[in-house]
Design goal:
Chain A: This is DUF4212 domain-containing protein. Chain A: It comes from Paracoccus aurantiacus. Chain A: InterPro entries: Na_symporter_ssu. The complex is a heterodimer of chains A (85) and B (603). Chain A has 85 residues and is mainly α. Chain A has one domain. Helix content of chain A is 74%, strand content 5%. Chain A is built from two helices and two strands; from the N terminus they run H-E-E-H. A two-stranded antiparallel ribbon of chain A has the order 1-2. In chain A, strand 1 and strand 2 form a beta hairpin. With 603 residues, chain B is mainly alpha-helical. Classes of the chains: A mainly alpha (85), B mainly alpha (603). Chains A and B meet through helix 1, strand 2 and helix 2 of A and helix 5, helix 10, helix 11, helix 13 and helix 26 of B.
């Protein structure tokens, strides 16, 4: 921990990225998949509605994209702050 | 070739592969035994994690859970995958940077307390042992169904196999066998699903078939399924029937429970770098999603196939346009042989209650609709004549229901065994690591040599296999309910304490200990209130119905509340007591940055 200030800035940036991911994570599963399903039930997908699709398939696909995006974004952040392995 | 010979060949080949890998990947050091020398590539680790995570419950039971409930059980799909987002974001990279071997070791070091470490060990043992019982029973059931040996012979064969590669190879052997087991189980799961999707919808991909149209028409498959099941008086498949609050909490409990399961977390100790731990969680979810996006299609399509078998009219037109399937067909027709096979196991049962020679399958527990009420009156129905349909049948009998060739059935048998064995091995590794590394090396005999510790790890692994097998032979009556217990404890104890250890420098020893205790005890009390003390039936203080639950929260969802209690108590107690020592703050700062993880390699 030679450079506490920059590591604090790094950590704050990381927390911000985590919050963005958690917000999307919650929106697609709890939001579109469960709570807001009645609001978006007008959008039909293959014999059911968008909320059903998010609950059974869509949220899982978004989760995958989220993790890879986070991994990519954090690798860039590591290099920006010079803390990469 | 007979079905029995085919099953024997496929299961035999898969077992030969596992044993070959076990001999090739023997562990020579504790680092190899606990963490495969941290040399597993992120993609390989992702595949191994997928096999480690997907148990007999995912492979055999989940599609059935969705099939008979529909939309409401999407909670399992989201809950058992969303946990990997939490793992990737909140736990895996930091625990990899910490660079030790077990989950309780992190708890003990971060909270500078042996008491905290031992509470961690106790939680880990309860979670992993309850979980492993289910896997061993799954092995026994699969063996007895497909190889016509007794349940206990099947269990001993499975135990001997796990012994071979887990005791010899440790994490290294387990990792590479899990990769092979993943390949077997995913092939076994997708092949029948592709056949069935093609038959019903003309889609090769079950994922798109679920949202596609029925073959030879414009009717959407899901719309047709909704119509058929509601015709028979069942709740509509795509509809929302359970309480929204409980669905949200149950999904969340599964997610944070998944992220807190020790046998999943330790898989991320095997990759070379912190950045690998992040991407490896993504790869794990890719491989898990290959099964989890197929499962809802398998559920919906097998529900439709089962219903259309019982009411042949449903396949082409209106449900009641043709009479129900006849008793004579069920007992003699070659294409319905599967019904007779599964009747023997007790998982499927029918009874011609009104003696008309037809077996009418419908929901007799709800107010019938117009068409059903008319049919009941006209055919003088005395109740549902297919009263027993076990959830698990949906995956296991799926190939037979759809009249698929014998080799597909044999692959499903090998896949079910792969799913149960790979999870059992991962759990046994977590158990033996906690005993040899946390209890023996960390507490009882700190002076033990590396060779001695490796021996202790192997002995505790062998003992765990024996205990798991004996428990699998005589599963306690509450075995099914303990899943709620395992997830509840992982959610209310391990997940919060790990997260606070990483994201707060202020939480101290007292906070962690009291937080964990409050989380575990409140969760246990809530579960026992409705399920009976230590699951002994009849000792529950309140009846286990939605009306009695506190704010409508089911015992299985309470892990979320337990986690909140854990966080709250830890925060209050920590702020009322002294700050953690400077070196602990330094430790937390160091696990937050990836640089320097290489040093852990030499540890």
């Amino acid at each position: 921990m030679s450079d506490r200030t920059s590591s604090n800035a790094y950590w704050r940036a990381n927390i911000r990225i985590i919050w963005i991911c958690i917000a999307i994570w919650a929106l697609v599963s709890y939001g579109f998949g469960i709570i807001f399903r009645p609001l978006i039930s007008g959008i039909k997908i293959g014999g059911s509605d968008l909320g059903f699709w998010f609950a059974q398939q869509g949220s899982i696909l978004v989760f995958i994209v989220l993790i890879f995006w986070y991994a990519w974004r954090m690798n860039r952040l590591d290099r920006e702050y010079g803390v990469e392995e | 070739m007979s079905q029995y010979t085919l099953n024997l060949i496929f299961i035999g080949i898969s077992f030969a592969i596992y044993i070959f890998i076990a001999i090739w990947a023997r562990a020579g050091s504790t680092s190899e035994f606990y963490a495969a020398n941290r040399g597993v590539s992120p993609v390989m680790n992702g595949m191994a994690t997928a096999a480690d995570w997907m148990s007999a419950a995912s492979f055999i039971s989940m599609a059935g859970l969705i099939a008979f409930t529909g939309y409401d059980n999407s909670t399992y799909l989201m809950g058992w995958t969303g946990g990997y987002v939490l793992l990737a974001l909140l736990l895996a990279p930091y625990l990899r940077k910490f660079g030790k071997f077990t989950v309780p070791e992190f708890i003990g070091d971060r909270f500078y307390s042996r008491t905290a470490r031992i509470i961690g060990v106790v939680c880990l043992l309860i979670i992993s042992i309850t979980y492993v019982i289910g896997q061993m029973t799954g092995v026994g059931v699969t063996f007895s169904r497909y190889l016509e040996v007794s349940n206990s012979t099947g269990l001993w064969i499975g135990a001997a196999l796990v012994f071979c590669y887990a005791v010899l190879g440790g994490m290294k052997g387990i990792t590479y066998t899990q990769v092979a087991q993943y390949v077997v189980l995913i092939i076994a799961y997708t092949i029948p699903a592709i056949f069935i999707a093609l038959q019903l919808t003309g889609h090769v991909l079950p994922q798109t078939g679920l949202f596609g149209s029925l073959s030879g028409g414009d009717t959407k498959f899901l719309a047709k399924l909704d119509q058929v099941v509601t015709d028979l008086g069942f709740a509509n498949y795509t509809g929302h029937h359970k309480s929204t609050l409980d669905m949200v909490l149950f999904t969340l409990a599964l997610m944070i429970g998944t992220a807190g399961l020790p046998h999943v977390i330790i898989r991320f100790f095997t990759v070379p770098k912190v950045s690998d731990a992040r991407s490896s969680a993504g790869w794990a979810l890719v491989f898990i999603a290959l099964l989890y996006t197929v499962a809802p299609a398998v559920g919906a399509m097998s529900r439709f196939n089962l219903t259309a078998t019982m009411w042949p009219g449903a396949k082409t037109g209106e449900t009641y346009s043709q009479p129900a399937v006849s008793l004579d067909a069920i007992e003699n027709a070659p294409e319905l042989e599967w019904m007779r096979n599964w009747q023997v196991t007790g998982l499927l049962g029918w009874e011609d209650k009104n003696g008309d020679g037809l077996i009418q399958y419908y929901n007799d527990k709800a107010e019938p609709g117009e068409a059903l009420a008319a049919t009941i009156a006209e055919q003088n129905l005395q109740g549902n004549e297919l009263p027993t349909v076990n959830n698990d049948i949906m995956v296991l009998a799926n190939p037979e229901i759809a009249n698929l060739p014998g080799w597909v059935i044999a692959i499903v048998a090998a896949g079910g065994l792969a799913a149960a064995l790979s999870t059992a091995a991962g759990l046994l590794l977590a158990i033996s690591g906690a005993v040899s590394h946390d209890l023996v090396k960390g507490w009882l005999a700190p002076e033990i040599s590396e060779k001695g510790e490796l021996m202790a790890a192997r002995v505790s692994m062998a003992v765990s296999i024996l205990v798991a097998t004996i428990l699998g032979l005589n599963p306690p009556g509450f075995a099914a309910q303990t899943v709620a217990l395992a997830f509840g404890l992982a959610a209310s104890s391990i997940f919060p304490v790990l997260m606070m250890g990483i994201f707060s420098t202020r939480i101290n020893k007292q906070g962690a200990i009291w937080g964990m205790l409050a989380g575990i005890i409140s969760t246990l009390l809530y579960i026992f209130t409705y399920k009976g003390w230590f699951f002994i039936s009849g000792t529950n203080m309140l009846e286990d119905t939605a009306a009695n639950w506190l704010f409508g929260i089911s015992p299985a969802s309470f892990g979320v509340i337990g986690a909140l209690i854990n966080f709250g108590v830890a925060y209050l107690v920590s702020n009322a007591t002294e700050e953690p020592p400077v070196e602990i703050v330094e430790l937390v700062e160091s696990i937050r940055v990836p640089r320097g993880s290489g040093a852990a390699l030499d540890h």
